[in-house]
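Backbones bend. We report:
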Amino acid sequence: MPARPRELTPDRSARHLFGAKMRAYRERAAISLESLSDVVKISRSHLSRIETAESMPPPSLPPVLDAAFGTDGIFEELYKLASKEIHPDQFQRRMELEGRATLIEEFSPQIVPGIVQTQDYARAQFFVSNPKATQDEIEELVTARMIRQARLEADPPPDLSLILDEAVLRRAFGGPAVTRAQLARLVEMAHTPTTVVQVLPFEHGGHALAGGSLTLWTLDDGARVAYEESITTGTLLEDIGIVAERQRAYDLLRACALSPSDSATFIRSVMEALPT
């Protein structure tokens, strides 16, 4: 006797409503989870967890569901709401501001910034951060990270400027293959119409931002906001004077970093030195 489908709770959140609507349209179309899995290229078990709101839908799923069920954008609209719920409360304001940014400037001292991480690099980082996490919990975090990156594909996309300490390139996550793929992505983004990546080599020595990561956003209304992050916490800085100080420190660091072209060459040299 087949197991009874788990009861849904669409009234709890947009994420739960997404799952409930997905099951409702699927059953209305008389499509099994197995058949839907073949259409959307996501495993049956993952689809089942999405229906019961145990897993967040990946960014690629909503448009495919709308096409499969002829729902005229319903799932994409629900996804926009559900994606805001995946981040902890203390990061909600951060995600709201990042979503409004027309210019994102970020300095990272140790780890490739989340907004440009590959899935495998993000997965490896999350596992190292919490080795007791289940695979589903890790995948949930990876999905959240990929949702952030969708901001770079907006129309128009924000301009992105990254300054990476040399340590970011040298500190491998997930092994040589994962690191090589991540560095290759950085090379691709080193100098495009909307992205710039610069490397701050060790030989530069100390600087004002050595204590942590810094992100600066220029918002759609011209306002500027800064965000400082440590291992598990982040602090939003919205005071005009303080943000100006952080902007000055960032600008000085950018002046001392390698040019985008030289940075791409430097990153390639690190890739070549990785074991095969």
